[in-house]
Amino acid sequence: MTTTPEDRTSAVDDLLCFALYAASRALTAAYRPLLQDLGLTYPQYLVMVALWERESMPVKDLGDALQLDYGTLTPLLKRLEAAGLITRQRRIDDERSVQVGLTPEGSAMREATGAITPAIGAAIGMSEAEVERLRVSLRRLTSNVAGRG
Q: Which residue numbers delimit the HTH marR-type domain (predicted)?
C-alpha cells in the first residue's frame, strides 16, 4: 500500500501539546463569530461568564477562577468597563483589593448568549459523555502539569 504525504503525520502532529494547542485555537475560532455581535472577545466572554455566576468578586478571585494573571486580566476588565458591562471599585474593607461587578447592561447581556452553548456543542460534534470525559481529562492534565495533582 502506498502512502501519500497526507497519510503521514509529522513530528508536530504526534505531540500532545500541539493537539491541545490546535484544539484550543479551533474552539476559540468557533466562538469568535458568536461573540462578535456581542462585541466580546473570547477572554472577555470568560470574564462575563464568571461574573454571571457570582455577580461580583474581587479581581484576585476572578483571576484565580480564570487562571489569568493580573497583568492579563486588567486590560480585559478595563475594556469591559469602558463598554459599560462591568464596574471596578476599591473595596471599602481593603483598599488594596478591587471588586468587579456587573452593570445592568452586563447582566442583561447574559440573555443574548443563550445560543452560544448549543452552537459550540454542535461544532464540537461529540456526545455529552465524550465531552464530559474530555473535560475531566483536561482538568486532570492541567492540575498535574501545574503541580496541583
A: 13-143
Contact 48, 106 (CB under 8 A): yes
pTM, to two decimals: 0.85
Place of cell 468578586: 57
Distance, in Å, from the CA atom of 79 to the CA atom of 40, rounded to the nearest integer, reads: 10
Residues 6+ positions from 65 with CB-CB distance below 8 Å = 50, 57
Spatial neighbors of 141 by CB under 8 A, at least 6 apart, are none
Could you please state the CATH topology (level 3) that the domain comprising 16-114 is classified under: Arc Repressor Mutant, subunit A (1.10.10)
Residue pLDDT, tens place only, 15-25: 999 999 999 99
Question: What DSSP line would sit under 80-133, residue for residue?
Answer: HHHTTSEEEEE-SS-TT-EEEEE-HHHHHHGGGGTTHHHHHHHHHT--HHHHHH
Query: What are the φ/ψ torsions at residue 56 (nearest 5 degrees)?
Result: -155, 145
